TrEMBL record:
It comes from Aquarana catesbeiana (American bullfrog). Coiled coil: none annotated. GO terms for cellular component: early endosome; late endosome. Residues 70-221 form the Rubicon Homology domain. It holds the Pfam family RH_dom. It comes from the Eukaryota. Keywords: Autophagy. GO terms for molecular function: phosphatidylinositol phosphate binding. The keyword Glycosyltransferase does not apply. The keyword S-adenosyl-L-methionine does not apply. One of its GO terms (biological process) is autophagy. This is Rubicon Homology domain-containing protein.
């Protein structure tokens, strides 16, 4: 593969350095879940704070190469071009604070992490930013539906005829019908797209229908 003069120069500095997994000046990024938005410091300040090392691999950056470092919007740190290949992702903090689903540039490490946790219910909106329910109508709708779903599901657990309806409820991730405020990135994206609300609404409708039928059964059996 031909390399541009730019890449060639870049590659040279890597050959000269031995990569080490952590030392006093640098530690590998941890797979942490960040709820906040970073206020991007100037590159100079940030890179000084990083001891002139890439946040991903710890390689030392010569002053001439600082301009080529890339910012990772998720970790709020600068990375070398090997560790940051301009992948893009939504940023949990931006969704949770501003309902902003734009994609931002992230390091390879963050891209992997965010992909891995995509469906995990890691975000308790009530704890992180409950005002969002008031600001976003679709979220408030989902909040109200979940109250009903949790209640309905608890009723089904005492009903010996609820096997089918419980199976239907299992068609959505368990936390949506068992917890009131936990969300995954996938849930939040589905709400933004307008997909999740109608799906939950249908589960409430079917659940209510089941309960009504059971009431009739109980009434008849008396
Ligand atoms: Zn690196
Ligand atoms: Zn029942």
């Amino acid at each position: 593969m031909p390399i541009s003069p730019d890449d060639g120069e870049h590659a040279d500095i890597y050959k000269l350095r031995i990569r080490v997994r952590g030392n006093l000046e640098w530690a590998p990024p941890r797979p942490q879940i960040i709820f906040n938005i970073h206020t991007a410091p100037t590159k100079k300040v940030a890179v000084t704070k990083q001891n002139y090392r890439c946040a991903g691999c710890g390689i030392r950056i010569e002053p001439d190469y600082i301009k080529r470092l890339r910012y990772c919007e998720y970790l709020g740190k600068y990375f070398c071009q090997c560790c940051h290949e301009n992948a893009q992702s939504v940023i949990p903090g931006r969704i949770l604070r501003k309902w902003d689903f734009s994609k931002y540039y992230v390091s390879n490490f963050s891209k992997d992490l965010l992909t891995k946790i995509w469906s995990d219910p890691l975000f308790n909106l009530h704890d992180i930013n409950s005002t969002m329910y008031r600001k976003v109508k679709a979220l408030e709708q989902v909040r109200l539906l979940r109250i009903q779903l949790v209640h309905l599901k608890n009723m089904f657990k005492t009903c010996r005829l609820a096997k089918n309806i419980l199976e239907l409820y299992d068609s959505v991730p368990g936390h949506l019908t068992e917890d009131l405020h936990l969300f995954s990135l996938n849930d939040l994206t589905a709400i933004k797209k307008g997909d999740l609300g109608p799906q939950l609404k249908e589960l409430v409708r079917l659940g209510t229908l089941h309960v009504e039928k059971c009431m009739v059964r109980i009434y008849i059996s008396f």
